[in-house]
Give the backbone structure.
Amino acid sequence: MAIFSRGIKKAAISPPVNKAAAAGNNYNGNNAGLPMIGSYFSYIEGDARNRAISCATVSRARDLMASVIGCMNLRMYNEIWNGNEMEKLPIAPRTWLRRIDPQSTNVFTLSFLFDDLFFYGRAFLYVTSRTADGYPASFTRLPAAMVQTLDQAGPVWFAPSKQIVFQGGELDPANVVQFLSPIQGIVYMSTQTVATALKLEAARYRNASSAIPAGVLKATGGEPLGAQELADLAASFDAARMTNQTAALNEFVTYHETATSPDKMLLIAAAEFQAMELARLCNIPPYLAGVSVGSYSYQSSAEARMDLWTFGVRAYADCIAQTLSMNNVLPNGVFVEFDVQQYLTGEYAMGDYDNTNETQQTQNV
């Protein structure tokens, strides 16, 4: 009986259950840095980025620019002096040019390199293999949200870091290709603009989720109602109208609709203005995001492509191409560039196969 007479001071808590790691991964609590590269189950894009891209205008701007960078081909060349100017001479590409990451496509890799530059102002590729001459042969992307630099706090990055930490472990900077955007990442650049857009969208969602017009219930007689009774009355009225088309009130209560039109309920004017602000933040012409801008319009798809390239994409494309042309990636005198003319003329939409067929047909004629 003694065991039943002892007072219980606190509840007993069983020890936590140890869960095995996912099959195919060597993750444990002591692994960090290099061993975690390629452990995709732990990869994240970051809460700040995810909040920003939940805004429709930011998502549209990101997708427009990512589609350009992801779909353009890369090519290599040398430069020689022809007596008047520097002339570009195309050369045979290295094996990684058409597949930067052997586990993925260039469309995906380049698009998310841009994604990191766009949101965070920098991006990272880790060298996974090298050729006999010591230059990189393949890469894998490290999400910028998971990389910390101990020698630079940001949000403006002044030079490639010499102290890179990934998943809590330090990496050799010689094996990391660092892309530094000339444009500050939007998650740091104007947090108030994104926060305002999110709050505005939340308000529009609340208004849109209402199945009845906004209104006021007014007690016209009977016993005075307290604050809690009034709240209960309003809640029961809303609940009844959500499931029935007809509401019933006694002689002591009347309902008065507010004179609010649907466009005011959904804050259309405010949403249009905030979409304009987000287009400014993302550095794209507002009309490309579907925002009405009055008399400013384009006459053709060619002009729209040129505007997107000039005002939005070019800085990021040049950042990627120039970084891949540096001497830690390619021998001195070898350069990488995007095939911009193919994009601006609209030929890249046809694909290489169509261009090849068209060239052959022209030669046959």
Q: What stands out?
A: Confidence is low (pLDDT under 50) at residues 1-30, 353-365. The two ends are 106 Å apart (CA to CA).
